[in-house]
Amino acid sequence: MPTSSPGGTERPLYEIKANLFKALAHPARIRILEILSAGDEPTPVSEILAATDIEPTLLSQHLAVLKRHDVVSSERVGNAVYYRLAHPSIRVLLVTARSFLADTLKARHQQLEAFDALPPVGDAP
């Protein structure tokens, strides 16, 4: 089902979803989103900087990517800029991803335990 984009062209929904996941496809951006999802109030850039230890210029670029894809929103108050998740579903997406990862790691751990339980094999020639 095509969706109209800001430029007026129509793009399939799967393409828009792929771009969303591209926006999320960096560890620093995931960390930023986790910081923002931890609180209900907007978070100043200074706190994000302190929590991530990312260079200010790089942080600004990561925030711009998230903002461009409507994952976060920002508000300037005086000299400070505050960020928040643009939609509560982003928090749900992060929790779902963490749950998926935990389940995957548990399955791999169980496979490793099953492997370790195999009887020994004779020495290779």
Automatic annotation (TrEMBL):
Keywords noted in UniProt: DNA-binding, Transcription, Transcription regulation
Domain HTH arsR-type positions: 9-105
InterPro entries: ArsR-like_HTH, HTH_ArsR_DNA-bd_dom, Metal_resp_trans_reg, WH-like_DNA-bd_sf, WH_DNA-bd_sf
SUPFAM superfamilies registered for this protein in UniProt: Winged helix' DNA-binding domain (SSF46785)
Signal peptide: none
Name assigned to this protein: Metalloregulator ArsR/SmtB family transcription factor
